[in-house]
Specification:
Molybdenum cofactor biosynthesis protein B; MoCF_biosynth_CS; molybdenum cofactor biosynthesis; alpha/beta; 6-stranded mixed sheet; single chain
């Protein structure tokens, strides 16, 4: 529920697609997230595509969370159970706090769409250096579900009773990194 008298605070959001097979031109999931965040009034800080390699993923995300102009990192891909899926393993060591409810809520919502196959999603979220990091599956439908059913509201400073904006760095509600 949005509080109409609260100001909208646009966020600076980076998007990372983890894939061994896609290119930026064929990356419909990363494009959907980029288009959705722009349509919501946020700014795309950066967009990259990395192969499913723990250290390359971790290096990219580490650089973003060290930047003062990136408040949110959205990652699509690498959250399944294949041999190369390693996004959770890459990201978890970087997190200061887990947002345990994110993965639970994502799987609950996804169950309505894909049934028990949602068990194979290792979607997760957490905070690192006052930057929100969200990892969702690589399918375009999964990204759409995450954005429309969770992220759109939680990245809107007007959403009440709470949202993630208050926990992020460099917003009007937060101080700067020290």
């Amino acid at each position: 529920m949005a509080k109409p008298d609260a100001p909208f605070i646009p966020l600076s959001i980076a998007v990372l697609t983890v894939s061994d097979t896609r290119t930026l031109d064929s990356d419909t999931s990363g494009q959907l997230l980029s288009d959705s965040l722009n349509a919501a009034g946020h700014q795309l800080a950066d967009r990259q595509l990395q192969p499913d390699d723990i250290y390359q993923i971790r290096a990219t995300v580490s650089a973003w969370i060290a930047r003062s102009d990136v408040q949110v990192v959205l990652i699509t891909g690498g959250t399944g159970f294949t041999g190369r899926d390693s996004t959770p393993e890459a990201i978890t060591p970087l997190l200061d706090k887990m947002v345990d409810g994110f993965g639970e809520l994502f799987r609950h919502i996804s169950w309505q769409e894909i049934g028990t196959s949602t068990l194979q999603s290792r979607a997760l979220a957490g905070l690192a250096n006052r930057t929100l990091i969200v990892c969702v599956p690589g399918s375009t439908n999964a990204c759409r579900t995450a954005w429309t059913k969770i992220l759109h509201e939680q990245l809107d400073s007007r959403t009440r009773p709470c949202n993630f904006v208050q926990h992020l760095d460099n917003t009007e509600q937060c101080g700067s990194r020290t």
